[in-house]
Write a structure and sequence with these properties.
Helices cover 45% and strands 15% of the residues. It contains 17 helices and 13 strands. The protein has helices at 14-31, 42-49, 58-64, 75-79, 85-88, 110-125, 143-153, 164-170, 189-192, 226-235, 237-256, 272-281, 298-306, 316-324, 336-344, 359-371, 378-396, and strands at residues 2-6, 35-39, 54-56, 95-99, 129-135, 158-161, 180-181, 203-208, 261-266, 290-293, 310-313, 329-333, 351-353. Strands 3-2-1-4-5-6-7 form a seven-stranded parallel β-sheet, sandwiched between helices. It has a six-stranded parallel β-sheet with strand order 10-9-8-11-12-13, with helices on both faces. The radius of gyration is 21 Å and the shape is globular. The relative contact order is 0.13.
């Protein structure tokens, strides 16, 4: 049985590389080692994950030839394009195609959305079995997009989304298919990358910051120029409340927790606006009280998160990774997918909406989480992920 695996990695988001590492581990554990991986940047994937059987993803080919596609909805015509000929040759009736997470089935990233629809259709038309796992889906606003997504999902042999909110959303316009809910595969990352060495002379607070972006849900349409979309974000009063909340929290912790406290600003993306945000919120902090980590490997990021006393994050995967290492996390949510994970682990009270944030709310949540006893929530979540792969083997091999 041939295995072809694709996913949302090599885009400069280190959290996605934790998904990749976990997916590799699971596929090799349950499906064997003769696996072909696709990546938006094959060289980056090879370097990060020590794999040499990597080819350009459909999204890579799609984005490099975007001018050739005038009608996204005509998937059958797009599949006939010669640029996909070699890719189509990967699949036959003895192939399992696995599309791993995370949240790229949405029209906020239009090219990504249609590339993933195309992937499913190619694999299905060539006779392969199609498995998608670890997805958050939406927003899908257009009727053309909803129709194409519904049609693609009906061609899948196994579907797993990573939160019940996505399942409820899909059930509004996709009928007649079985949708499973299993945790994001990155929750097993502590089985892949083992615990880092803790420095017991310091109390580490890991801050995983991100520039302000307004909260989005299943009905939010964020199509359009990125520059144009940033203008209202920069001018928003909510952005300033968000900045003040972060700054106030850092100063509060310095004054009220032990003298050995150290902030680790761990940047999980290579995006310049997130780096600028760190510079904004660290102003006034003593230089010996913080370290900024950027351009990390996923192994280094996991080690940093595993050694923390607490994680405070405006990114989803740092929260998932911290949970995997039994480190308590406070989530600042900009998207329903973060709400979905916090609901999955029954920690909704440790999550604050980015557009409803205040310094009082954030300090109160962090203070409470700081004093809670550590819980090993990850054991049950990991078991669910392993059960998911056992189900895939049973149904598709």
């Amino acid at each position: 049985m041939k295995i072809v695996v694709s996913g949302g990695w090599s885009y400069g988001n280190i959290g996605d590389e934790a998904i990749a590492a976990s997916t590799i581990y699971l596929c090799e554990k349950y499906l064997g080692h003769e696996i072909i991986y696709t990546s938006f940047d094959p060289r980056d994937f090879e370097r990060r994950h020590s794999k040499n059987n990597v080819i350009p993803s459909v999204h890579k080919m799609f984005s490099e030839n975007i001018n050739e596609f005038s009608d996204y909805s005509d998937i059958k015509q797009i599949m006939k394009n010669d640029i996909f000929k070699e890719y189509c040759g990967l699949f036959d009736k003895d192939t399992i195609f696995i599309m791993s997470g995370g949240g790229y089935f949405n029209e906020s990233w239009n090219n990504q959305f249609w590339a993933r629809i195309l992937e499913i259709n190619i694999a299905y038309n060539m006779g392969a079995k199609v498995v998608i796992i670890g997805q958050s889906i939406g927003p899908v606003i257009s009727e053309i997009g909803k129709s194409a997504l519904s049609d693609a999902l009906k061609k899948c042999d196994f579907i797993s989304v990573r939160d019940s909110l996505t399942k409820e959303y899909l059930e509004q316009f996709v009928e007649g298919i079985d949708i499973n809910v299993y945790p994001d595969v990155a929750v097993i990352i502590s089985d892949v990358i083992h615990h880092g060495m803790r420095d017991n002379t310091k109390t580490i607070v890991n801050i995983m910051p991100a520039n302000y972006i307004r909260y989005s849900n299943f009905d939010t349409n964020k199509k359009g120029s990125y520059i144009v979309k940033r203008i209202p974000n920069r001018l928003s009063l909510k952005r300033y409340k968000y900045i003040i909340a972060y700054r106030s929290l850092l100063n509060y912790l310095l004054k009220n927790k032990n003298e050995n406290l150290m902030f680790q600003f761990v940047l999980s993306t290579n995006w310049k606006w997130d780096r600028k945000f760190v510079d904004l919120i660290k102003r006034g902090l003593p230089k010996d009280k913080f370290i900024i980590y950027e351009n990390l490997s996923h192994e280094k990021m996991c080690n940093l998160l595993s050694e923390g006393r607490i994680t405070i994050s405006t990114k989803m995967h740092p929260v998932i990774i911290s949970t995997s290492y039994s480190v308590p996390a406070v989530a600042i949510s900009y998207n329903y997918k973060i709400d979905g994970f916090m609901s999955l682990i029954d920690k909704q009270e440790n999550c604050v909406n980015i557009d409803d944030i205040s310094k009082e709310k954030l300090i109160s949540i962090v203070d409470r989480v700081w004093n809670e006893e550590s819980e090993n929530t990850a054991i049950c979540l990991k078991e669910q992920v392993y059960n998911m792969f056992e189900q895939i083997v049973k149904e598709c091999m």
